[in-house]
Amino acid sequence: MRVGDEIPPLEIEITRTLIVAGAIASRDYQDVHHDADLARAKGSPDIFMNILTTNGLVGRYVTDHFGPAAVLRGVAIRLGAPNHPGDTMVLTGRVEEVDGDTATVRILGANGIGRHVTGTVTVTVPASAGARHADAPSAERPSAGGAA
Q1: What percent of the chain has pLDDT over 90?
Q2: What span, in angstroms and rounded, lies between the C-alpha atoms of 99 and 44?
Q3: What confidence tens digit (pLDDT) does each residue in 48-81 have?
Q4: What per-residue string of b and e applies to 7-32 under the rule 16 or more CB within 10 Å gives b?
Q5: Whose CA is closest to 84, among 32, 14, 148?
Q6: Which of 19, 15, 37 is nearest to 28 (CA)?
Q7: What pLDDT does 127 receive?
Q8: How far apart are CA 126 and CA 70, in angstroms?
Q9: What is the pLDDT of residue 128?
Q10: What is the mean pLDDT of the segment spanning 44-50?
Q11: Cβ(6)–Cβ(93) under 8 Å?
Q12: 22, 117 in Cβ contact below 8 A?
């Protein structure tokens, strides 16, 4: 893990099921996350993903790269363009700082209308664990299109 290391991109299909399931799992029952008619009445073209689902996807992105021994120490994100059903969010990351076995990773998640999420993740990876290679298959987690 070195400053400047890039994390391979992760494409996540934004489905209605992902948005609703993420809202329910995080106990966010705001109608704009599950009721398209009420979301439209409030000015949105459709339902949209909540910040807690985005936060979880960002954490998953980093831990999928650094492996099962990785420990998230901090996640600081800001939302921009909403994630609507039918879009694809592409997460990218770059190591900005390294202090021993702890790194700060700059994160960007973009969709068809702009930047959905920006921020940083601080992650500790024990020296004995190391980062997984981008081409190593992941048996621990579902595919990007699976549940968050």
Answers
A1: 84
A2: 42
A3: 999 999 999 999 999 999 999 999 999 999 999 9
A4: beebebebeeebbbebbeebeeeeeb
A5: 14
A6: 19
A7: 82
A8: 7
A9: 72
A10: 97
A11: yes
A12: no
Using the structure block, give the residue that is written with the tokens 């600081």: 76
What lies within 8 Å, CB to CB, of 143 at 6+ separation is none
Structure tokens at 108: 């960007």
Report d(CA 45, CA 31) in Å as an integer.
13
pLDDT band at 138 (very low <50, low <70, confident <90, very high): very low
Instruction: Kindly report the backbone phi and psi dihedral angles of residue 95, in degrees, each rounded to the nearest multiple of 5, phi listed first.
Output: -70, 120
Place of tokens 């936060």: 55
Type of residue at 72: L
Please check whether residue 8 is in contact with residue 91, taking contact to mean a CB–CB distance below 8 angstroms: no
**Average pLDDT of span 109-117:** 98
Q: Residue holding tokens 């997984």?
A: 132
Tokens of 31: 């109608």
Residue type, 128: S
Q: For residue 63, which of 71, 74, 73 has the smallest C-alpha distance?
A: 71
